[in-house]
Amino acid sequence: MMKPSTKITSIIITCALLLVGCNNENNKTAKEVSNINKEFLNDLKHRTFNFFWDIMDGNTWQIPDRYPTESFTSVAATGFGLTSYLVGIKNNYISREEGAKRVLETLKWLKNSKQGPDASEVTGYKGFYYHFLTYNQGVRYKNVELSTIDTAWLIAGILACQTFFDENNEQEQQIRELADFLYKRVDWNWAMDGHEVMTMGWHPESGFINAKYIGYSEAMMLVILGLASPTHPIPDSTWSAWCNTYIWKNFHGYKYINFEPLFGHQYSHMYIDFRGIQDNFMKDKGIDYFENSRRATLANRNYCIENPQNFNAYSDSIWGLSACDGPADTVMLINDNKVQFFSYRARGASVRYIDDDGTIAPTAAGGSIPFAPEECINALVAMKNTYGKKVYGKYGFKDAFNPTFISPKTPSGWFDSDYLGIDQGPILIQLENYQSGFIWDLMKKNKYIITGLKKAGFKGGWLDSSE
After folding, report:
1. CATH no. of 246-418
2. N or C, where is the chain less crowded by C-beta within 10 Å?
3. What mean pLDDT is reported for the chain?
């Protein structure tokens, strides 16, 4: 059931937007709504930036996986953090000097941290980094994997900094040189392990993980970085092998390459503007990957509107399934049906499977703002207006909430207390891309991104005019 306050919020916002151009009084109403939304988005952007700026581990310069719960740092969140510093400079939250200092210290630490085949007391191996690192020491956390995809997000943030800090002074020159070193050190081809597509990771105790990146996912950036490497490139055929595993099907009114959680349709798009450029697969379908993500976003929304499991609050303005925290790993009886709830989980929906326990992740809508601005912004506004401080706090949106999970301890539903770095990043970066195209335009100047796209067979649009 849709809560009355949610329904009213959605109707007000939608009607105001539709009234643009009717008469002076209605234009004024629409303008007021637009200004309110602009103020909200700017507040959200600043708060989310502060997450990355405030909670960095002062000993390692890495970004924690989550806050306020203290667990470990995340190399992917650090990549998003490096990118967030650039957003902070652009929006005058920090000075260029402050941002450059933070970036330089981070890159120095990454270069000097110990790498090797040992199972402990190292940060990585072959230029890759372990998924999670310990606080203070910055070494492998327990027995986590050497992660190919999380290293890719770290490198993406590093390359964004390399492109941004282009001034002719010692500090920014060091940033560019360190960025080049860290990217070129990664042995992408080693991680192929002789296969047509890349492995997901490696353990020093047992070797490569059996799982590989097949089927569409967030790993587009991983493949592009591997193709572009001037030192350890993966085979040129990798992109075709990757595309051969796509699932192109209709789901909830849209035909697109299916992948369940929305983060898979967002992450690579944080750094690459896929509008107007096509590989052979997209050329054959007559769209681009940006349009594919738009369809995926709207299909995710349509699924939530249909709400086949009758979860609380799902509506046209409260929606969004992606990887996020959840209430608990337990089974409860909801509306005479047994529902399996989960803690952290890659929730989502596609033709392959549905993974849905009533948990909404604000990053699902937040990271998709460029693809479907009206629907995504309305959703974020509705979440904040409906649940207030339960979902929106010092650093923007808490990671997730579940109004269906009602128990003696959670009589009004479950609301996360944590912010997660890998879910904060898409909100901040994609919001900036929507407003200014800043990170997209920056990465259009990076020679490695251009090389990787061209080796993957992309053509058209801005890529044809790039050097």
Report:
1. 1.50.10.140
2. C
3. 93
